[in-house]
Here is the input.
Amino acid sequence: MAIPYLYPSNFPYGSRVVTFTFSAGGTGAAILEAFEFSEPTAEISRQNELGAPNGFVLIAEPRTATATAQLATSSTTYVSRGDYLNTTIKNGTSITFVVTNASNPEGPREAKKQTLTLREEI
Here is the structure.
């Protein structure tokens, strides 16, 4: 008897394989187990002559992201600040993210994983 699927076979799952370009030179592969990006805006409120609100303006800020990266092999270089990756986001938009913060955990019998904070390259 075949094992039934919990989800349809075309159900998207949230991991992606990326290649980091290291600021010191070279590249390294990683699997992003969790990747969440946001598209923040800056808001400027507009007021009339009496100080009452009568509108606002939104200005796009650089996109940001967080990710949990599992390094591909034990010989893969850890990801550091200043390293970057190219990936696609919704609607197939290609974007370059730069690493602004990277954890460097070490533990017995654990996979090499790093928690990363990313910012869009402008």
User: Anything to note?
Assistant: The CA atoms of residues 39 and 112 lie 29 Å apart.
